[in-house]
Amino acid sequence: MDISRILYTLMCILGSTWTQALTVCDQCDCTLSENTDDEKGNAIVKPSCSEGRITWMNPHGAMRLELNPGIFTDFRACVIVKSDNTKTKVSKEVQSTKYKNHRTKYLENEVKLEPWFTVIDRSREYCVQSTDKQPVLLYVETETTTNSTGLPRVTVLYDIEKYSPLQEDLMEECRPCDEEELINAFCTSHFVVVGRIADVLNYPDEDRTRIGVEVDQLIRQSTEQFTRIKRTPATQVDNHIIHPGYRSDSLLYGQIFAPEKCGIQRGEGTLLFTGRVRLGEPKLRCAPFYEDWRKILETATRDGTMECSFD
């Protein structure tokens, strides 16, 4: 029998067995559930979107996460990992090419795991840039802890954005939006509200600031980031006191997040808040004073440069 045919047959058999041992998920949001009676194996997850959530119930073995937004350019992938009743280790899969035989110039790809971070409970945001437009490959492993009392679960929130050299500027995301960016943010953001800063709470270890917003006008929200709460002389939200304002009825209130390095403080004035839900949290994009925004809006409407309709 032809030796090449024998090798091909063996590869098909081995490939079939390997595929059956894997759990493959190619949706934006995936839920994997494993039986503790199963042998430890590897789950392969290849999300088809630029953002989403992977929930791994009762994890054991490992999960290989391939982040590839399908764009023909370099990109930045960011993740937040929540680890309930288990210890989770995340590594980056790094591929390199080397000469196997310098005489024949035969190339061989070498794959190794580079430890990235370990988490119990909730991690901060971690980001990695793609190399040569290749997918970002992550390897997620779990380890049972001595104080685990409930069902273990790992949740990976991911977000992929086209890479821009501006991302190298550490203060770029703190820069005020220009007029064109404001119009785009008003038309495309997940949430757009008019209101005032009610409270500010910093988390230096996570480089993020939580901004409590008391809303006067809700223009748009994709999910319920802003909801009604009962107004009292000292309204408390998440163990933090917010300012009651001037009415005694209920108020529309919500929380959005921004980098702590931006130094956001509570002040007077009405603002237009815009942003998107990113990695499970509403993130601030642009926040001009409302009067300044009204002037920009009037000019764009008169000049025909407004990108969307509005009430």
From TrEMBL:
Annotated signal peptide: 1-21
GO CC terms of this entry: extracellular space
Keywords of this entry: Disulfide bond, Secreted, Signal
InterPro entries, alphabetized: Meteorin-like, TIMP-like_OB-fold
Source superkingdom: Eukaryota
Transmembrane segments: none
Alphabetized GO MF terms: hormone activity
Keyword Acyltransferase: no
Subcellular location: Secreted
Keyword flag Disulfide bond: yes
Family to which the UniProt record says this protein belongs: Belongs to the meteorin family.
Protein name: Meteorin-like protein
Organism: Patella caerulea (Rayed Mediterranean limpet)
